[in-house]
Amino acid sequence: MDYQNWGPRDMSAPVRTQLPEVPVERGMVLEDVQSGWVGAVTRVEKSGGMHVVVLEDRRGKSRTFRLGFGFLLEGRAIRLMPPAPRPATAAPAAGRTASGSVRIAGQRAQVAKASRIWVEGKHDAELVEKVWGDDLRVEGIVVEPLHGIDDLAGAVADFRPGPGRRLGVLVDHLVPDSKESRIADAVMASPGAAGNVLIVGHPYVDVWQAIRPAVLGIEKWPVVPRGQDWKTGILAAFGWPHDTKEDIGLGWQKLLGAVRSYADLEASLLGRVEEVIDFLTVP
After folding, report:
1. How does pLDDT run across 126-161, given as a tens digit for each residue?
2. Backbone dihedral angles phi then psi of residue 127, each to the nearest 5 degrees
3. Strand partners, 198
């Protein structure tokens, strides 16, 4: 018997129970008890030092709520918690580069060779540099952005490829019957290209998609409607600022920051980059 609590009691008072703590997830359907608002989670962010969740109802309207008590999940009261920490992807093992190659102790960067890797844009170059940069410095291979491949034939002619001056080109969306595949075929048919130029590509609209969705905490990349700028559509789907070039750049930096090693990239990109490096470095 608890003598400390001896005396009259209100037997009608509800028994306090510990509500289950549930980390918020995109797509989770919740009801705010106070307002009755029901919607799916579209994004979670910090505002004024606290976590808030945005719920979109079936009409496409959104409201923002503070995380914590006062939510129902499948009719059950819960305490809504911040997102569960994403499992950290494995950092490169000691003695390994981000690409998985053996790190050579004390190896200095080689003087840049005449051979080059060309990629379509700045973001492609930054991703290749982050994962394969150590390897490329050892080999003396420089990565340069093209800012588009519409005039690839002219750029290759100006480069004048040949023995000891090879060129590897990594192209976005290189799939059969695409504009990119026709450009690549024309370049490879030009004088001096055979044996000295290698054009490879990945199937993605943009190199952003070569980052594995799980690394970003999503099941798959959002689908952007045809006719809408792809990068803008992706950032909008994430709920990130997307109106200016600066917004696009900052969004990319967030994505790039999630990449720690080759394990965070799709195999369809990994194989193509390794193929280009081998082409430029193996006699």
Report:
1. 999 999 888 888 888 889 999 888 899 999 999 999
2. -70, -45
3. 168
